[in-house]
Amino acid sequence: MKEKGSHTGFSSKAGVVLAAAGSAVGLGNIWKFPYEAGENGGGAFLIVYLLCVLLFGMPLLTTEFLIGRKSRKTTFSAFREISGSNRWQWMGWWSAVTIYILMGFYFVVTGWCFNYLYEALFNLYAGMDSAELLTHFAANMSDTPRMIVCSLVPVFLTAAVLWRGVNQGIERLSKILMPLLLVMMIVMAGRVLMLDGSNTGMRFLFEIDFSRITPTVFMKAAGQCFFSLSIGLGLLITYGSYMPDSQNVTMTSLQVVVLDTLVALLAGVIIFPAVFAFGFDPAEGPELVFVVLPAVLQNMSFAWFSGVLFFLLLCIAAITSTISLMEVEVAALTEFSNGRINRRRSVLITTAVTSLLVVVFILSMTGRCPSLRLFGRDLFELADGLVTTFMMPLGALSMSLFAGWFMPSKSIEIIPRSRSRFKRWLRPVFVFLLRWVVPLAILFIFLNGLGVL
């Protein structure tokens, strides 16, 4: 369908919800959430995470949708359009740079998922114990040609989807992949819960030990909330600009948050019962999915099928997020050029820049180019820390201050007002969260990430 001007939008309300949920659902849910929960007390982390989603995630997610739909612009121009001033243009540039750096990191991790899907299909890690799998993982990570190929495959798959546009590409694929992802996760969770000893993992995930709730756990859970929902990047400003005027923004945001949280919980239900059933440590860190899980999966009945299914889940979740990341850059480039660069040329340019970034990150990570290191660290490590500790929190902080304080007349105008007397409290609560709770929480996360707290 067409919205204002020549701006192409989603054709259905379900398409908006599934595409936005696909943007939020990614490796943050299935790869990062389980190991963060494993390292920070299971149920204690979960309850704080859910609180953060309610207090921080929901208001910022809704704000992005509202700014996008009101402006009918991409992330690059939306703040200038809403404010009527070029003073806020820097936020568009900040978002574009942050997303490019994140893509360099994210496509590399997505490449790990595709590599392990390939290995699961051909049973290449069969018979290895956890120590051998750790060595195997390190060997894979240092194999430069393999990592380049595995990481460029999702880049080109994502470009193929974007080539077909918003309706025929993003929306159509989201309507297929998101329901498929949920069905596959439910099947996998049902299979894992039949294992002897799985109830120990369920207790770890859902029983709350309040003594484990510390300031560190709170900071970790809040950071995971931002990473999992992809807020602070402006991704959903671009998707909001494709949203029909008739769509209820608050309900859409709630549906996206529920789907995103459901996937994270299902990931925990899949991973922790299996880990405990076979006597592994849930606090294994980032290697939990790529080292511990292969060891667990090959000890299950139907080991080959279980391994393929799990890593296919990871790949699908990753692709639904890479689509939104690249779409922001594609749409912004077309808008920045005032249409002189059409969508397909924008796809080609964005794909070329992203591919170059991915190759540079891999060369730095594998040590092939020692000169591609800064402060004694490779670019992959630096990008992860820079984006999650500094750039995303600052982007989210700027967005909450923009909507809550600096543009009060504009922001109040775009925040929905309910006619129901039972829902009139939503608007003042929403404004209060944006003005006070969200900025203060982000400030604490930012200072914690910098080591000040």
Quickly list its features.
75% helix, 2 strands, single chain, two-stranded antiparallel sheet, disordered N terminus, mainly alpha, 18 helices, 453 residues
Strand segment tally: 2
Protein structure class: mainly alpha
Please trace the helix and strand order, writing H or E for each element: HHHHHHHHHHHHHHHEEHHH
**What profile does the largest beta sheet have?**
2 strands, antiparallel
Give the uncertain stretches in residue-range form: 1-6
Q: Which percent bin holds the helix content?
A: over 70%
> Can you count the helices?
18
Radius of gyration: 21 Å
Distance between the termini: 49 Å
Average pLDDT value? 89
**Shape annotation:** globular
| Order of neighbouring strands in the sheet with most strands | 1-2
Proportion of strand residues: under 5%
Characterise the protein shown here.
The protein is mostly helical and 453 residues long. It has helices spanning 13-24, 27-39, 43-71, 75-83, 89-121, 130-141, 144-163, 165-193, 198-206, 215-229, 235-241, 249-277, 292-297, 303-336, 343-366, 379-406, 408-414, 426-449, and strands at 373-374, 377-378. Helix 3 (43-71) crosses helix 11. Residues 1-6 have low confidence and may be disordered.
Topology:
Elements: H1 13-24, H2 27-39, H3 43-71, H4 75-83, H5 89-121, H6 130-141, H7 144-163, H8 165-193, H9 198-206, H10 215-229, H11 235-241, H12 249-277, H13 292-297, H14 303-336, H15 343-366, E1 373-374, E2 377-378, H16 379-406, H17 408-414, H18 426-449
Antiparallel strand pairs: 1-2
Helix pairs in contact: 1-8, 1-11, 1-12, 1-14, 2-10, 2-12, 2-14, 3-4, 3-10, 3-11, 3-12, 3-18, 4-5, 5-7, 5-14, 5-15, 5-16, 7-8, 7-14, 7-15, 8-12, 8-14, 9-12, 10-18, 11-14, 14-15, 16-17, 16-18
